[in-house]
Amino acid sequence: MEPETSGEAYTVLASYYDRLTQDVNYGKWADYIQRHFAKSKQPISSVLDLGCGTGSLACELAQRGYHVIGADLSTDMLSVAQEKCADLDVFLVSADMRRIRLPEPVDAALCCLDSLNYLMTPAGVQSTFQSVYQALVPGGLFLFDVKTPLAFTSAEGQINTDEDEDLYCIWQSELRRKQTVCTYQLDLFVREKGDLWRRMEEWHEEHLWLPEVLTQWLQQAGFQGISLYGCLTMGKPRDKDMRIFISARKDA
């Protein structure tokens, strides 16, 4: 059985992403985001969700009264999001976060679930920070998360599986480039009829970005009030955290 292959992330996976990520509690993520919104010196009503994927977080925030612009590079993921967000105050756009341009600035910008780790070059991250800065109103909030070095080293050589009765997925991870890039090979088996299964492949890459470097690039882009937080906490990062959050504010 020859597999269907994809050189781009979130093409083959898009139709099955939600079934494979049911463990992600988007309500808890939205609660955490709102805790940061509550700390803002100005009201937040419009939100840019960078790397919005299938729109689960965008929908959660829209249901709580926010106007959300969801941006993603994968048109396959956006097609799923379009159906999910059809009756909500969510506007979806196919856009590269490194060059995002909005007709009007927003009160807050998010980049969640290690979306920033998918940027593979310093120039890409710096361009994203500059684009987000331009997309925010004065005093606007930028909140994002990144994986920690522990998350990368823990992934080395790991093989993980997800399944239901009609779907079986195998993730294999490998570290390379002096431990700063994690490559994931995805093998997806989908039942088509009876005992007939279709196999598909996809590859993902994530880059490790250290908080001290990200802080420097945020400052260069013009951001102020930069703070680091542990995973879904309002406290400082801990040694055991697999991801951390960083918040920054555009100068008022």
Please list the strands of the largest sheet in the order they lie side by side: 4-3-2-5-6-12-11
One letter per element, helices H and strands E, the order comes to: EHHEHEHEEHEHEEEEHEE
CATH superfamily of the largest domain: Vaccinia Virus protein VP39
Shape: globular
Which residues sit in consecutive blocks of at least 5 with pLDDT less than 50? 1-7
> Which CATH-level-2 architecture of the largest domain?
3-Layer(aba) Sandwich
Helix content percent band? 25-40%
Number of separate strands: 12
CATH T-level fold name of the largest domain:
Rossmann fold
From the alpha carbons, calculate the radius of gyration and give it in angstroms.
Answer: 18 Å
CATH class descriptor of the largest domain: Alpha Beta
* Distance N to C terminus: 59 Å
Count of the separate structural domains: 2
Largest sheet: 7 strands, mixed
Describe the model:
- With 252 residues, the protein is α/β, with parallel strands linked by helices.
- It has two domains: 13-147 and 208-250, 3-Layer(aba) Sandwich (Rossmann fold), CATH 3.40.50.150; 151-207, N-terminal domain of TfIIb (Single Sheet), CATH 2.20.25.
- Helices cover 27% and strands 37% of the residues.
- It is built from seven helices and twelve strands.
- The protein has helices at residues 17-20, 26-39, 56-63, 75-84, 122-135, 149-155, 211-221; strands at residues 4-6, 46-50, 67-72, 90-94, 106-111, 136-147, 159-164, 167-176, 181-193, 196-207, 223-229, 243-250.
- The protein has a seven-stranded mixed beta sheet, sandwiched between helices. The protein has a five-stranded mixed beta sheet with strand order 1-10-9-8-7.
- Strand 7 and strand 8 (167-176) form a beta hairpin.
- Helix 2 (26-39) crosses helix 3 (56-63).
- The longest helix has 14 residues, at 26-39.
